[in-house]
TrEMBL record:
CDD domains found in the cross-reference section: HTH_ARSR
Residue ranges annotated for the HTH marR-type domain, each copy included: 40-169
PANTHER family on file: MARR-FAMILY TRANSCRIPTIONAL REGULATOR (PTHR33164:SF57), TRANSCRIPTIONAL REGULATOR, MARR FAMILY (PTHR33164)
PROSITE patterns: HTH_MARR_2
GO biological process: response to stress
Name this polypeptide is given: MarR family transcriptional regulator
A molecular function (GO) term: DNA-binding transcription factor activity
SUPFAM superfamilies per UniProt: Winged helix' DNA-binding domain
InterPro entries: ArsR-like_HTH, HTH_MarR-typ, MarR/SlyA-like, WH-like_DNA-bd_sf, WH_DNA-bd_sf
Species for this entry: Agromyces bracchium
Length: 182
């Protein structure tokens, strides 16, 4: 089997199988091209340049605080999260998450809310100011992708819109099956 390891900024890589042992050289070459494309997108999306550009484009008030921006964008994308969940997502410790949340609380973008089902735990959630930032974050993303796809044909954009969610779902499914059978 042919595989490629997708890595970003020193984090542990993900090994993606990209071909079967009995595949033709054409199918292996095609799989390698696709895997290379996926890897380039992953590396681009997690690059410091993109992160800093996003912080600047959205007017993030904690200039240069990449950890706070990453935490905030996870709460924007996923909704309220427990600090332990944020620590896992961000590959950091709970104490560090607590410090990052405190910085975001100090400027009014997030708040800690006690879990009604278990008063010993809290959720980190957006405040009204955080929600306004989330709307600007989304608008900035739309402007970026509008510009990116302005030179693409409508059929190409339609094909990407149709196939990209399928690719993401299939990757998640295959990873879950592979990991559970390992």
């Amino acid at each position: 089997m042919v595989s490629v390891t997708v890595q970003s900024e020193g984090k542990q890589g993900i090994v993606l199988p990209i071909g079967a042992e009995s595949g033709s050289s054409d199918s292996v070459e095609r799989a390698q091209l696709i895997a290379d494309g996926v890897q380039r997108i992953v590396l681009w999306s997690q690059s410091r340049r993109v992160l800093q550009g996003s912080m600047e484009a959205t007017g993030f008030p904690l200039r240069g605080d990449e950890s706070a921006f990453r935490l905030l964008t996870e709460v924007i994308r996923r909704g309220p999260l427990r600090p332990a969940e944020l620590a896992e997502i961000l590959s950091t410790g709970r104490a560090n998450v607590s410090k990052i949340v405190a910085r975001l609380e100090s400027i009014g973008l997030v708040q800690r809310r006690t879990n009604a089902a278990d008063t010993r735990s809290v959720f980190v959630e957006l405040t009204p100011s955080g929600l306004a930032f989330a709307n600007e974050f989304a608008a900035t993303g739309r402007r970026f992708y509008d510009l990116l796809f302005s030179a693409w044909s409508e059929p190409d954009v339609d094909a990407l819109e149709r196939l990209l969610p399928r690719l993401a779902e299939d990757l998640e499914t295959l990873t879950a099956v592979r990991l559970s059978s390992s």
